[in-house]
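lol so apparently i was supposed to do this last week
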Amino acid sequence: MRTGVSVAEARALVLEASPLLEAERVPAADALGRVLAEAVHASRTLPPADCSAMDGYAVRAADLAEASASAPVRLAVAFEVPAGGRGSRPLAPGEAARIFTGAPIPAGADAVVMQEDVLADGQGARFRRPARAGEHVRPAGEDVRAGDLVLTPGSVLGPSQLGMLAALGRTAVLVRRRPRVAILSGGDELIEPDGPVGEGRIVASNSYAIAAQCREAGAEPSLLGIARDDPQDLERLLRAGLHADVLVSSAGVSVGEHDYVRPVLEKLGCRLVFWGVLMKPGYPLAFGRIEAERGPLVFGLPGNPVSALVTFELFVRPALRKMAGRRSWFRPTLDATLGETLRKSPGRTHFVRVELAREGGELRAVPTGNQSSGVLSSMVLAQGLLVFPAEAAELAAGARARVHVLDPEFFAAERAD
Ligand code: AMP
Ligand code: MG
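anyway here it is w/ magnesium ion bound
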């Protein structure tokens, strides 16, 4: 086991150990947000036949070659092509057919004149200008042709992808299984949110924050509950999580007298890969794997609420995304101008909770307040984590720094223009 690894080394070790999960078939109607595990080739051509792009009249362009405003050409409206166009007959020379958007072009016709340009009179219609062959006709296969590669593995299924699957007649789709994450909180002081407060009691809020982070990352969390600072209790609850893909415990992985998580994990067959990451918040992070077939990855997160959130963000989230077959594993980053001077001693990377603001053409990052690892309220306000590099001792106000953007709403526009 390694100790005191850099953030980059720790990330690389975690990702290297994170397996791609198997695929499962799900109803396409339930597949929003899932990651495709197959290549989808078009089973049919779309549109299946030449069809009208307008409400109007299907014509033979040659019939209108001489049409002009001063000498309109009159064609007999011989029939109507209904939606679906079943039973429509070929168009003979000198004829037009009433047609609607999406209806198939009858044989013989090669253009559609939009209805706004046509003077209908009784059984006929007058045309005041020529039509170009192909005008307002959507050719068969304009969208996709049978056999085309339409979606690639690793695509995230959103509304347009699901619309395409439906258009191709797919009702089921092969996607990556969602990672299952078992979450444990440990500590004698911990209670559930509706438990009795007082006497040094602290709500095990990490379990709830971590479950939310799991869902946001596309994983399925389950709560194992709160383990007492007691090896038997800890072992009993951790065992219940061995079926999961990932086991996340918060607290108890430090070096304190009552920190039993490490020895209990080792008893359960966990081989620790590293303990201790050169970062703040979040130094006491442990990572390993239960050495059994399909044994879960194990993250022992620090107990302090901000440390737990930040280490999940930096290490667990990318692992879950890799396991789920996503192509990108990390948050978007932006360079921002720091709003105030920051100082620290060299050695650890600090992740500073910041609020982001666009001022003029510039992006500014301003720390959200008390950066203690127990202060959740400054994390509540944070839209990003600013990277204060390990070896630096000062970042001056006005300096540029990299920010991991946590809040997807940051990219949402405030105005509709
Ligand atoms: P520990 O790692 O056990 O020394 O815990 C560090 C700090 O985090 C202590 O103040 C704990 O009370 C707190 N803490 C531990 N576990 C949790 C949890 N699940 N939710 C919220 N706070 C916690
Ligand atoms: Mg504790």
